[in-house]
Specification:
Chain lengths: ~475, ~260
Amino acid sequence: MIWTSLDTWIVVAAVLAGATCALIGSFLVLKKVSMMGDAISHAVLPGIAVAFILTGSRAGPVMLLGAALVGVLTAVLVQLIHRHARLEEGASMGVVFTVLFAIGLILIEQAARNVDIHPEHVLFGAVELVPLHVVSLGGWDVPRGVVLLAVMLVINVVLVVLFFKELRLATFDPELATALGINATAVHYVLMVLVAMTTVAAFEVVGSILVVAMLIVPGAIAWLLTRRLLPFLIVSVAVSVVAAVVGHIAAITVPPLFGYADTSTSGSMATVLGLFFFLAMLFAPEQGLVARAWGTARLRLSIGTQDALGLLARAAEKPENRDASLSAAEFRGVSRSPFAGRRLRLAAALGLLRARGLVAARGGRYRATERGAEQGRAVLRSHRLWERFFYDDGKVDLGELHTAADVLEHFTDSGLQHELAERFAGISTDPRGNRIPGETTNPDANRPLEDRALDDGSQKPRP
Amino acid sequence: MGLEQMSSPEADGNRCSLHIRDLTVAYHRKPVLWDVDLDVPPSVVAGIVGPNGAGKSTLIKAVLDLVPHASGTVEIFGKPYRKQRRLVGYVPQRESVDWNYPINALELVAMGLYRTIGWFRRVGPVYRRRALQALADVGMADLAHRQISQLSGGQQQRIFLARALVQDAEVYFMDEPFSGVDAATEKTIIAILQRLREAGKTVFVVHHDLETVRDYFDYLIMLNMRVVSAGPVAEVFTPENLRRTYGGRLTLLDRAVDAMGRTR
């Protein structure tokens, strides 16, 4: 890898573009108007072209002004068409931004005959050219694009810091915001103006197509990883900055490994962002697919152990079964056994129960220990109380009681069990005449499932 | 006290917590509320009932200037809403926001204070304490730092209520606070309604369960596009008014309105 001062400027530009897009784009994701980012980033094209044709300059302020105007125009047109043509918002966006984009394309083709503005640069960006156009700042030659992006980043950061509260309220609950005197519609338009200006500032780096990735993907990643607004914004910006650096390094190192020339930095950045998103989707601590699969597996295992203890408690009620033990075959063979045909599930449950000292095994037969028996009776108590409940209060048929109670018994903590017992005070048997085991004195026996396993961990209180 | 007894609320707009004249609201030219007149005295808990599509939520939103008025005037204690914002607390329908938004219960409740705090300023410790107190008032102090998607429906409704309480308003508008809540939350809400009434506040509640009307409210607004009847519950909650509110929707006028909607 050969690193030059060009590479440094490219990375600086990419980092600034990534950070400023991620910050403002986060609010599009929070407001659930991500597609407005797509619409505006395309619709600003005629703004740029007209600003360029009128002034003959590509100077930053003119471009930003053109972008701001078209940003508002787009947002207004989308609303007007949505309201007056009674068209869904997505369709009205589709109409507005494609038409504006097409007009912009025609204008730029015309303008391009005289001066150096290329449609493909607008579409795909030309970060490699950023270091070539420099301005002098206090004796320093700084690329013009970098200055523009830095200004835009400062504007966005200042506005977000100043209006943090108002942005939070207006994006969460626009009606309350308006009722309190914070005009949510005005906030929406300001946001659209900022998105338009930001996309224009980032055009040189990423182009009008990939800028959508820079606006939306960091926010989407933060959505998976965070639960509060400030961490949300920090994660969004940080992810984008890392993607910019990694993206450029990958662009100049990875293709040469396979004998190809360097690839586009912007394409590489967006690809890295996509990869980050994929990783977040898999491995996010609570909402990730892996965490959820793990939670489900734990829940199933936990239910399996309770089922096994419940069966042992039933076996203990049979006078002929003197040592209250069951063989693996008997576990699977009793009527309506949850283990029928599921050897693996049984083996896992028994293995875990033995490891926890709730079940002991001897000569191929399994017997509950004292603690295990207590927990088994608690499960059985919940089961039979629920059968009572469904039979007496729900008028459910005798034959269907078992299935319903079988699910609920696993989700009945001592408080709920107590309420059920109070409801049926003085009744000591289930609808079939089986005795309901007494309440256990050990509070632990009655905590059927660990809290965490209940629902993908999402019920767990967060610090 | 003596002064209030001398002038009847109906005669004097300033004495009304809510005064509405000739209010008409239309979506796409189809009227949703038509010629609404209301004069509600202060210090009552007023139920707003009516069938689906009767304009109950729209009435609240029209009062809070959230939907444009086709015509008419709305006054809260004698002045338009935009001058009385600080007197008004609002509890929107629970479904109106995204509960996956990255924010915790305390931050949500503190939103009720944003106007008091003012532009550019952070939510300081004084305001956080007030928000915590409001959370305690609805029995949710121990869940202050929980992300809002981790709360049950009843708990979400309670923090919405806390957000309005923290505004320390004179008039509250609550859009279906009882919808889909558990028994404990229902009890909490009723207790709060009573406390507000005792403190001299006025509360408007969009409500669905007719069986509880007599228990919860002392004033009732029966709505079906127009005000069918409004007044003390004991006077207006009659079978005849219920029939006029809920039964036989297709009066001649309704048919005319439907036809207007179709011609667009």
